[in-house]
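Task card 7
Instruction: Convert sequence to structure tokens.
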Amino acid sequence: MPLSPIAASLLTTMPPLEMDNLEESRRLFRQGSENLSELMPAPKVRMESISVPTRFGLRAARRYIPPGPAYPHPIVYYPGGGFVLGGPDTHHALTARLCHTLGAIVVSVDYAKAPEAKFPQAVYECYDVGIWVSHQASAWNVAQEIVVAGDSAGGNLAAVVAQLARDANAPPILAQVLYYPVTDMSQETLSRREFSEGYFLTEAAIQWFGTQYLNDVGDAVNLLASPLLNPNLANLPPTLILTGEYDPLRDEGESYADRLAKAGVTVRKVRYDGMIHGFMSIPLFPELQAGIAETKTFLGAVHSV
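Output:
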């Protein structure tokens, strides 16, 4: 399918990533998120800032509380942004929509960013937050089984947390929801080559993010950085993976879905034609609402099993 006309128009206005200026990159990413949110304001839900204990100290997070009866499983959301740029502020619109539409408590995690915090600090912080949220279940009147979710780099963290939780038998995870996740930092794919420039997320940016996050090239094959490389994907929770046709991360996300299915995991894989990377944070796209609806249907089905 051709590139979405909305995406084509949007790409002409998106500023390139300032890879030589970290603070400017972060400022532009926040500003872009704010500008997009103004086009279609997020639904209003209750929010509260919380501090979560991790092995690295307290980590800030934001809890979203739905207006009505809650979906019985809290969602722990890890924002994307290349392990460098994103957080609860940049992903507020998406997490608020998930909270409002699903009727779920959502905890958006402000995990430590690279390059100040190198791999694997973010992994273990995200895992520790999942444990803590599960322990909060009785106080929040929800189930101990959590949903881990995230987009892009956050999808990577959610996938890794699910693998860690399986191996440690904690926290109990009902499902994982991965939006165009990073699953293999060790090698290029056809989609990375085909969409290396001109489609928002560039190959140069992917390489830059990896350099900021990883300590050295050897980390790229570590299973905590590249969950696709794990030889054992059995007994992982039911998984929803959404990808975009024109996203350089498309192939590694879909490969992860295929390998999970081969390992016997219940998987729902959906590709949105005409879409670029990040479409779940861009309210101009009707595919955003379609993705939210897909998530609601998937989690509803998983809960009822």
